[in-house]
Structures are given as C-alpha cells and as structure tokens.
Write a structure and sequence with these properties.
Number of strands: 2
Radius of gyration: 16 Å
CATH superfamily: lambda repressor-like DNA-binding domains
Low-confidence stretches: none
Order of helices and strands: EHHHHHE
Number of helices: 5
Strand order of the largest sheet: 1-2
Oligomer: single chain
Mean pLDDT: 86
Shape: globular
Strand content: 5-15%
Number of domains: 1
Distance between the termini: 34 Å
CATH class: Mainly Alpha
Length: about 80
C-alpha cells in the first residue's frame, strides 16, 4: 500500500509505549498494531484527531504517500478509460 503510517517514529520521539498511546487515543493496542503494520484500510477523522492531539503533531507527520508500481512516471495513477458508447 502506498500510504505509510509513521506512528513508531512519533512514539519513540514522545517516549510513549504502545499501551500508553492506545489508552490515551482510546483505541485498542491491537488496532495500534494494525496501523503500525500498514494493514489499516481506513482511519476515522476522529481517531486521526485524537492521534494528533496525543502526539502533538499534524496528520502529515503520521501519514505519507509512497509511489508504487501502479503509478505512471508523472505520478498520476494509471486507470483504464472506458468509452461510454
């Protein structure tokens, strides 16, 4: 997945354990692991807001995009185009 979640870096900077972080944000440690391991399919804005509040950061400090094979050289996604007729 080209969206990378950098919670580990911010937890280390804040000297916070996963358990402390999960408790402060109001999510389970298992859901923190899902985020950290890149297995999350979505994040609620309310959860993102809580994460940013606890870690005193911006969403862009947590989430970043990386290119993968599905990208053209311009960086735009390559999608099939269908003719409507």
């Amino acid at each position: 997945m080209p969206i990378i979640v950098d919670i580990d870096v911010l937890l280390a900077k804040n000297k916070m354990s996963v358990a402390e972080f999960a408790n402060a944000v109001g999510i389970s440690p298992a859901n923190v692991a899902v985020l950290k391991n890149g297995r999350a399919k979505a994040v609620r804005f309310s959860t993102l807001e809580a994460i940013c509040s606890v870690l005193k950061c911006q969403p862009g400090d947590i989430l970043r995009w990386e290119s993968d094979e599905g990208q053209s050289s311009s960086g735009a996604p390559q999608h099939a185009v269908r003719n409507g007729s």
